[in-house]
Write a structure and sequence with these properties.
Elements (H helix, E strand, L loop, with lengths): L26 H7 L7 E3 L5 E3 L35 H14 L13 H5 L8
Organism: Actinomyces urogenitalis DORA_12
Pfam families: FTHFS (PF01268)
GO molecular function, one term: ATP binding
């Protein structure tokens, strides 16, 4: 499944095994599906890439996107369900829902602070 394709994805109520691996995605190909040419992709190893800001100067991107077509959704807080579904689950569901509706959807998830998880103070908790 690719969130950019807007394909219908079969839904299963069975929990996914923890050992289930995701397929490797070529970041240049992923950027191309988002409309970003390879010359603007700066790889940092196999799994990380940054996008050069000069991508904004690309043909077709020089004019701002009309306000009625650009949307930015931030999931900052949610009360988790008894099943442990929280912000990440909701954010993934939103991205999949938008893709299902045929919208271009790109999702980024940030790693939460590890300090509170391990009961220590400070942002450098690991």
């Amino acid at each position: 499944m690719s969130p950019l394709d807007g394909e219908n994805v079969p839904v299963s109520n069975a929990p996914a095994p923890a050992s289930m691996s995701s397929e490797d995605v070529n970041l240049v190909d992923l950027a191309a599906r988002a409309g970003i040419s390879a010359e603007h992709v700066i790889p940092y190893g196999r799994d990380v890439a940054k996008i050069d800001l000069s991508v904004l100067d690309q043909a077709g991107h020089s004019e701002p996107v009309p306000a009625d077509r650009a949307h930015y959704v931030v999931v900052t807080a949610i009360t988790p369900t008894s099943f442990g579904e929280g912000k990440s689950t909701v954010a993934i569901g939103l991205a999949q829902g938008l893709a299902y509706r045929g919208r271009r959807s790109i999702l980024t998830l940030r790693q939460s602070a590890m300090g509170p998880t391990f009961g220590i103070k400070g942002g450098a908790g690991g």
